[in-house]
Amino acid sequence: MAVIPIDHEYIKRLRPPANRRGLVGWLKENLFNGVFNSILTIVVLGFLIKFLPPFLKWAVIDASWFGTSAACKSGDGACWAVVAKNLRFVIFGFYPHDLHWRPFTAMMMLFVLLFFSNNRKYWGKALAYGWVGGLIAMGILMKGGILGLTAVDSMKWGGLPLTLLLSVFGLTAAYPLGVILALGRTSHMPMIRYLSITYIEMIRGVPLISLLFMSSIIFPLFLPEGVTINTILRAQMAIILFTAAYVAEVVRGGLQGMSSGQYEAADSLGLNYVQTMRLIILPQALKIVIPPTVSVLVSAFKDTSLVVIIALYDFLLTSKTVIQNPEWMGFSTEMYLFVALMYFLGCFSMSNFSRKLERELDTDQR
Predict the structure, then answer these.
(1) Cβ atoms within 10 A of the Cβ of 142, count?
(2) What are the residues facing 64 on neighbouring strands?
(3) Of the residues 32, 123, 162, 171, which has the fewest C-beta atoms closer than 10 A?
(4) Tens digits of residue pLDDT in 53-65
(5) Nearest partner of 208 among 321, 316, 345, 301, judged by Cα
(6) What is the DSSP letter of 81?
(7) Could you tell me the pTM of the whole model?
(8) Residues with Cβ < 8 Å from 58, sequence gap 6 or more?
(9) What is the pLDDT of residues 163-212, one digit of tens each?
(10) Which uninterrupted H or E stretch holds 312?
Protein backbone atom coordinates (compact mmCIF):
# COMPACT_ATOMS: atom_id res chain seq x y z
CA MET A 1 0.00 0.00 0.00
CA ALA A 2 1.40 3.39 -1.03
CA VAL A 3 1.75 6.05 1.64
CA ILE A 4 0.83 9.62 0.55
CA PRO A 5 2.65 12.29 2.56
CA ILE A 6 0.62 15.19 3.94
CA ASP A 7 1.62 18.57 2.47
CA HIS A 8 1.29 20.81 5.52
CA GLU A 9 2.51 23.91 3.65
CA TYR A 10 -0.27 23.45 1.01
CA ILE A 11 -2.89 23.13 3.73
CA LYS A 12 -1.65 26.37 5.33
CA ARG A 13 -2.07 28.20 2.00
CA LEU A 14 -5.68 27.07 1.51
CA ARG A 15 -8.22 29.89 1.84
CA PRO A 16 -11.13 29.41 4.23
CA PRO A 17 -14.55 28.61 2.65
CA ALA A 18 -16.78 31.49 1.66
CA ASN A 19 -18.89 32.88 4.43
CA ARG A 20 -22.32 31.30 4.17
CA ARG A 21 -23.50 32.13 7.64
CA GLY A 22 -24.61 35.29 9.33
CA LEU A 23 -26.11 38.39 7.75
CA VAL A 24 -23.56 38.63 4.92
CA GLY A 25 -24.05 35.02 3.95
CA TRP A 26 -27.84 35.37 4.01
CA LEU A 27 -27.67 38.51 1.83
CA LYS A 28 -25.41 36.78 -0.68
CA GLU A 29 -27.59 33.70 -0.83
CA ASN A 30 -31.01 35.36 -0.93
CA LEU A 31 -30.58 38.84 -2.44
CA PHE A 32 -27.32 39.04 -4.39
CA ASN A 33 -26.77 35.50 -5.70
CA GLY A 34 -26.50 36.62 -9.33
CA VAL A 35 -26.45 39.65 -11.62
CA PHE A 36 -30.18 39.65 -12.33
CA ASN A 37 -31.15 39.12 -8.68
CA SER A 38 -28.73 41.86 -7.59
CA ILE A 39 -30.26 44.34 -10.05
CA LEU A 40 -33.76 43.31 -8.98
CA THR A 41 -32.86 43.75 -5.30
CA ILE A 42 -31.47 47.24 -5.94
CA VAL A 43 -34.59 48.28 -7.90
CA VAL A 44 -36.91 47.00 -5.15
CA LEU A 45 -34.87 48.73 -2.46
CA GLY A 46 -35.02 51.99 -4.42
CA PHE A 47 -38.80 51.64 -4.75
CA LEU A 48 -39.19 51.00 -1.03
CA ILE A 49 -36.93 53.93 -0.07
CA LYS A 50 -38.94 56.29 -2.28
CA PHE A 51 -42.50 55.23 -1.46
CA LEU A 52 -42.49 53.43 1.91
CA PRO A 53 -41.62 56.43 4.18
CA PRO A 54 -44.40 58.67 2.73
CA PHE A 55 -46.88 55.80 3.03
CA LEU A 56 -45.94 55.13 6.67
CA LYS A 57 -46.22 58.86 7.41
CA TRP A 58 -49.72 58.92 5.89
CA ALA A 59 -50.93 55.59 7.27
CA VAL A 60 -49.40 55.65 10.76
CA ILE A 61 -47.76 58.89 11.93
CA ASP A 62 -50.33 61.45 10.68
CA ALA A 63 -53.31 59.07 10.80
CA SER A 64 -56.49 59.66 12.79
CA TRP A 65 -57.35 56.39 14.48
CA PHE A 66 -60.38 57.56 16.44
CA GLY A 67 -62.52 60.66 16.29
CA THR A 68 -65.02 62.34 14.04
CA SER A 69 -65.06 62.86 10.30
CA ALA A 70 -64.44 66.59 10.88
CA ALA A 71 -61.20 65.77 12.70
CA CYS A 72 -60.17 63.48 9.87
CA LYS A 73 -60.82 66.14 7.23
CA SER A 74 -58.65 68.63 9.11
CA GLY A 75 -55.74 66.18 9.27
CA ASP A 76 -53.19 65.21 6.63
CA GLY A 77 -53.03 61.47 7.27
CA ALA A 78 -55.25 58.47 6.85
CA CYS A 79 -58.63 58.37 8.54
CA TRP A 80 -58.89 54.95 10.15
CA ALA A 81 -61.72 56.34 12.26
CA VAL A 82 -64.01 55.60 9.32
CA VAL A 83 -63.41 51.92 10.10
CA ALA A 84 -63.48 52.21 13.87
CA LYS A 85 -66.67 54.29 13.98
CA ASN A 86 -68.57 52.07 11.55
CA LEU A 87 -67.09 48.69 12.44
CA ARG A 88 -70.31 47.17 13.76
CA PHE A 89 -72.24 48.08 10.61
CA VAL A 90 -69.41 46.86 8.36
CA ILE A 91 -69.22 43.55 10.22
CA PHE A 92 -72.92 42.89 10.88
CA GLY A 93 -74.77 44.96 8.27
CA PHE A 94 -78.46 45.56 8.96
CA TYR A 95 -78.72 42.78 11.55
CA PRO A 96 -80.58 44.22 14.60
CA HIS A 97 -78.13 46.13 16.76
CA ASP A 98 -79.15 44.55 20.07
CA LEU A 99 -78.79 41.04 18.61
CA HIS A 100 -75.25 41.39 17.30
CA TRP A 101 -74.07 38.84 19.86
CA ARG A 102 -75.74 36.11 17.82
CA PRO A 103 -73.80 36.54 14.53
CA PHE A 104 -70.67 37.21 16.61
CA THR A 105 -71.13 33.91 18.45
CA ALA A 106 -71.78 32.14 15.14
CA MET A 107 -68.54 33.54 13.70
CA MET A 108 -66.56 32.48 16.77
CA MET A 109 -67.97 28.95 16.48
CA LEU A 110 -66.92 28.87 12.84
CA PHE A 111 -63.39 30.06 13.67
CA VAL A 112 -63.07 27.38 16.39
CA LEU A 113 -64.12 24.67 13.93
CA LEU A 114 -61.66 25.98 11.34
CA PHE A 115 -58.90 26.05 13.96
CA PHE A 116 -59.36 22.38 14.83
CA SER A 117 -59.80 21.45 11.16
CA ASN A 118 -56.40 22.99 10.45
CA ASN A 119 -54.70 20.20 12.41
CA ARG A 120 -54.94 16.67 10.99
CA LYS A 121 -54.69 15.04 14.41
CA TYR A 122 -58.23 16.27 15.12
CA TRP A 123 -59.65 14.83 11.91
CA GLY A 124 -62.18 12.21 12.85
CA LYS A 125 -65.82 11.52 13.61
CA ALA A 126 -65.83 13.95 16.54
CA LEU A 127 -64.80 16.82 14.27
CA ALA A 128 -67.37 15.78 11.66
CA TYR A 129 -70.11 15.75 14.30
CA GLY A 130 -68.78 19.07 15.54
CA TRP A 131 -69.15 20.59 12.06
CA VAL A 132 -72.71 19.27 11.67
CA GLY A 133 -73.73 20.49 15.11
CA GLY A 134 -71.89 23.77 14.69
CA LEU A 135 -73.50 24.56 11.35
CA ILE A 136 -76.96 23.81 12.76
CA ALA A 137 -76.23 25.98 15.80
CA MET A 138 -74.95 28.81 13.57
CA GLY A 139 -78.10 28.64 11.46
CA ILE A 140 -80.30 28.77 14.57
CA LEU A 141 -78.35 31.71 15.96
CA MET A 142 -78.60 33.66 12.72
CA LYS A 143 -82.23 32.85 11.93
CA GLY A 144 -83.76 32.56 15.41
CA GLY A 145 -87.45 31.84 15.84
CA ILE A 146 -86.89 28.91 18.25
CA LEU A 147 -85.44 28.41 21.73
CA GLY A 148 -86.69 31.85 22.69
CA LEU A 149 -84.56 33.60 20.07
CA THR A 150 -86.13 36.47 18.18
CA ALA A 151 -86.62 35.66 14.50
CA VAL A 152 -84.50 37.75 12.11
CA ASP A 153 -85.37 37.93 8.42
CA SER A 154 -82.56 36.60 6.25
CA MET A 155 -82.59 39.79 4.14
CA LYS A 156 -81.14 41.55 7.20
CA TRP A 157 -78.16 39.21 7.26
CA GLY A 158 -75.12 40.98 5.97
CA GLY A 159 -71.52 41.96 6.45
CA LEU A 160 -68.83 39.48 7.41
CA PRO A 161 -71.18 36.69 8.65
CA LEU A 162 -72.87 36.58 5.24
CA THR A 163 -69.52 36.50 3.42
CA LEU A 164 -68.28 33.68 5.65
CA LEU A 165 -71.58 31.84 5.27
CA LEU A 166 -71.45 31.97 1.47
CA SER A 167 -67.75 31.08 1.41
CA VAL A 168 -67.56 28.23 3.92
CA PHE A 169 -70.85 26.57 2.99
CA GLY A 170 -70.19 27.07 -0.70
CA LEU A 171 -66.65 25.68 -0.74
CA THR A 172 -67.54 22.81 1.61
CA ALA A 173 -70.44 21.69 -0.58
CA ALA A 174 -68.75 22.39 -3.93
CA TYR A 175 -65.70 20.21 -3.32
CA PRO A 176 -67.42 16.80 -2.93
CA LEU A 177 -69.82 17.70 -5.76
CA GLY A 178 -66.82 18.53 -7.97
CA VAL A 179 -65.20 15.16 -7.15
CA ILE A 180 -68.41 13.33 -8.08
CA LEU A 181 -68.62 15.26 -11.36
CA ALA A 182 -64.99 14.43 -12.14
CA LEU A 183 -65.65 10.74 -11.55
CA GLY A 184 -68.75 11.01 -13.72
CA ARG A 185 -66.79 12.62 -16.52
CA THR A 186 -64.23 9.79 -16.50
CA SER A 187 -66.91 7.09 -16.13
CA HIS A 188 -67.19 4.30 -18.71
CA MET A 189 -71.00 4.62 -18.68
CA PRO A 190 -71.89 6.93 -21.61
CA MET A 191 -75.01 8.49 -20.09
CA ILE A 192 -73.27 9.49 -16.86
CA ARG A 193 -70.21 10.69 -18.75
CA TYR A 194 -72.17 12.85 -21.22
CA LEU A 195 -74.39 14.29 -18.50
CA SER A 196 -71.32 15.26 -16.48
CA ILE A 197 -69.60 16.75 -19.53
CA THR A 198 -72.71 18.73 -20.47
CA TYR A 199 -73.10 20.13 -16.98
CA ILE A 200 -69.43 21.05 -16.57
CA GLU A 201 -69.11 22.72 -19.98
CA MET A 202 -72.40 24.62 -19.64
CA ILE A 203 -71.51 26.00 -16.21
CA ARG A 204 -67.95 26.87 -17.21
CA GLY A 205 -69.24 28.59 -20.33
CA VAL A 206 -71.06 31.32 -18.42
CA PRO A 207 -69.82 33.81 -15.80
CA LEU A 208 -70.89 33.57 -12.18
CA ILE A 209 -72.79 36.84 -12.52
CA SER A 210 -75.20 35.27 -15.00
CA LEU A 211 -75.87 32.36 -12.64
CA LEU A 212 -76.56 34.77 -9.80
CA PHE A 213 -79.01 36.69 -12.01
CA MET A 214 -80.73 33.48 -13.06
CA SER A 215 -81.04 32.29 -9.47
CA SER A 216 -82.32 35.66 -8.32
CA ILE A 217 -84.64 36.73 -11.16
CA ILE A 218 -85.36 33.92 -13.62
CA PHE A 219 -85.53 30.88 -11.33
CA PRO A 220 -88.43 32.23 -9.18
CA LEU A 221 -90.53 32.58 -12.36
CA PHE A 222 -90.60 28.78 -12.72
CA LEU A 223 -91.76 28.14 -9.17
CA PRO A 224 -95.46 27.44 -8.44
CA GLU A 225 -97.52 30.36 -7.19
CA GLY A 226 -96.98 30.96 -3.50
CA VAL A 227 -93.68 29.01 -3.40
CA THR A 228 -90.59 31.07 -2.67
CA ILE A 229 -86.99 30.14 -1.96
CA ASN A 230 -84.77 32.34 0.14
CA THR A 231 -82.53 34.73 -1.84
CA ILE A 232 -79.42 33.80 0.13
CA LEU A 233 -80.11 30.09 -0.45
CA ARG A 234 -80.46 30.69 -4.20
CA ALA A 235 -77.20 32.65 -4.31
CA GLN A 236 -75.54 29.92 -2.28
CA MET A 237 -76.68 27.26 -4.73
CA ALA A 238 -75.37 29.30 -7.67
CA ILE A 239 -71.94 29.59 -6.02
CA ILE A 240 -71.87 25.86 -5.23
CA LEU A 241 -72.83 24.82 -8.76
CA PHE A 242 -70.34 27.23 -10.33
CA THR A 243 -67.39 26.26 -8.11
CA ALA A 244 -68.10 22.54 -8.41
CA ALA A 245 -67.67 22.66 -12.20
CA TYR A 246 -64.17 24.13 -11.88
CA VAL A 247 -63.20 21.75 -9.07
CA ALA A 248 -64.34 18.86 -11.28
CA GLU A 249 -61.93 19.84 -14.04
CA VAL A 250 -59.04 20.11 -11.60
CA VAL A 251 -59.80 16.69 -10.09
CA ARG A 252 -60.16 15.22 -13.58
CA GLY A 253 -56.59 16.36 -14.26
CA GLY A 254 -55.46 14.46 -11.18
CA LEU A 255 -57.32 11.33 -12.27
CA GLN A 256 -55.71 11.48 -15.71
CA GLY A 257 -52.30 11.81 -14.06
CA MET A 258 -52.64 8.37 -12.47
CA SER A 259 -50.79 5.59 -14.22
CA SER A 260 -52.60 2.50 -15.50
CA GLY A 261 -50.50 0.42 -13.12
CA GLN A 262 -52.52 1.76 -10.19
CA TYR A 263 -55.75 0.47 -11.74
CA GLU A 264 -54.12 -2.85 -12.63
CA ALA A 265 -52.84 -3.22 -9.07
CA ALA A 266 -56.35 -2.62 -7.74
CA ASP A 267 -57.75 -5.20 -10.18
CA SER A 268 -55.16 -7.72 -9.08
CA LEU A 269 -56.33 -7.25 -5.49
CA GLY A 270 -59.92 -7.88 -6.53
CA LEU A 271 -61.18 -4.42 -5.58
CA ASN A 272 -64.38 -3.13 -7.12
CA TYR A 273 -64.80 0.35 -8.64
CA VAL A 274 -65.79 2.09 -5.41
CA GLN A 275 -62.97 0.48 -3.40
CA THR A 276 -60.45 1.29 -6.14
CA MET A 277 -61.41 4.93 -6.22
CA ARG A 278 -61.78 5.36 -2.45
CA LEU A 279 -58.66 3.49 -1.36
CA ILE A 280 -56.15 3.90 -4.20
CA ILE A 281 -56.95 6.38 -6.95
CA LEU A 282 -58.67 9.34 -5.29
CA PRO A 283 -56.21 9.74 -2.36
CA GLN A 284 -53.32 10.02 -4.82
CA ALA A 285 -55.20 12.11 -7.40
CA LEU A 286 -56.48 14.61 -4.85
CA LYS A 287 -53.01 14.93 -3.32
CA ILE A 288 -51.32 15.91 -6.57
CA VAL A 289 -53.95 18.54 -7.41
CA ILE A 290 -53.91 20.36 -4.07
CA PRO A 291 -52.29 23.57 -5.48
CA PRO A 292 -54.73 24.05 -8.42
CA THR A 293 -57.66 23.09 -6.21
CA VAL A 294 -56.74 25.77 -3.70
CA SER A 295 -56.44 28.29 -6.54
CA VAL A 296 -60.02 27.51 -7.55
CA LEU A 297 -61.25 27.75 -3.96
CA VAL A 298 -59.43 31.06 -3.35
CA SER A 299 -60.96 32.44 -6.54
CA ALA A 300 -64.40 31.27 -5.41
CA PHE A 301 -63.89 32.91 -2.01
CA LYS A 302 -63.24 36.26 -3.69
CA ASP A 303 -66.12 35.77 -6.14
CA THR A 304 -68.62 35.69 -3.28
CA SER A 305 -68.40 39.50 -3.34
CA LEU A 306 -70.37 39.37 -6.62
CA VAL A 307 -73.57 38.83 -4.65
CA VAL A 308 -73.74 42.63 -4.37
CA ILE A 309 -75.35 42.63 -7.83
CA ILE A 310 -78.43 40.88 -6.42
CA ALA A 311 -78.62 43.36 -3.52
CA LEU A 312 -77.15 41.13 -0.81
CA TYR A 313 -75.24 43.23 1.71
CA ASP A 314 -72.08 41.22 2.04
CA PHE A 315 -68.89 42.53 3.64
CA LEU A 316 -67.92 44.54 0.56
CA LEU A 317 -71.31 46.21 0.11
CA THR A 318 -71.64 47.22 3.77
CA SER A 319 -68.19 48.84 3.49
CA LYS A 320 -69.24 50.64 0.32
CA THR A 321 -72.42 51.85 2.02
CA VAL A 322 -70.37 53.50 4.76
CA ILE A 323 -68.22 55.54 2.38
CA GLN A 324 -71.33 56.64 0.46
CA ASN A 325 -72.50 58.37 3.64
CA PRO A 326 -71.87 62.13 3.15
CA GLU A 327 -70.26 62.25 6.59
CA TRP A 328 -67.52 59.80 5.56
CA MET A 329 -67.13 60.63 1.87
CA GLY A 330 -63.52 60.94 0.76
CA PHE A 331 -62.17 58.10 2.88
CA SER A 332 -62.73 55.24 0.49
CA THR A 333 -59.00 54.43 0.35
CA GLU A 334 -58.87 53.59 4.04
CA MET A 335 -62.06 51.51 3.90
CA TYR A 336 -61.00 49.54 0.83
CA LEU A 337 -57.57 48.91 2.38
CA PHE A 338 -59.37 47.43 5.39
CA VAL A 339 -61.54 45.26 3.10
CA ALA A 340 -58.47 44.16 1.15
CA LEU A 341 -56.73 43.21 4.39
CA MET A 342 -59.66 41.02 5.47
CA TYR A 343 -59.82 39.26 2.10
CA PHE A 344 -56.03 38.83 2.15
CA LEU A 345 -56.20 37.15 5.55
CA GLY A 346 -58.84 34.73 4.25
CA CYS A 347 -56.92 33.88 1.06
CA PHE A 348 -53.57 33.66 2.86
CA SER A 349 -55.02 31.29 5.45
CA MET A 350 -56.32 28.99 2.73
CA SER A 351 -52.99 29.04 0.87
CA ASN A 352 -51.04 28.44 4.08
CA PHE A 353 -53.28 25.49 4.98
CA SER A 354 -52.81 23.97 1.52
CA ARG A 355 -49.00 24.22 1.79
CA LYS A 356 -49.13 22.61 5.23
CA LEU A 357 -51.38 19.83 3.96
CA GLU A 358 -49.18 19.31 0.92
CA ARG A 359 -46.07 18.90 3.10
CA GLU A 360 -47.82 16.45 5.42
CA LEU A 361 -49.10 14.33 2.55
CA ASP A 362 -45.84 14.39 0.59
CA THR A 363 -44.91 10.82 1.50
CA ASP A 364 -42.67 10.45 -1.58
CA GLN A 365 -39.98 12.65 0.01
CA ARG A 366 -39.85 10.78 3.31
Answers:
(1) 22
(2) 79
(3) 123
(4) 999 999 988 888 8
(5) 301
(6) H
(7) 0.81
(8) 76, 77, 78
(9) 888 888 888 889 999 999 999 998 889 999 999 999 999 999 988 888 88
(10) none
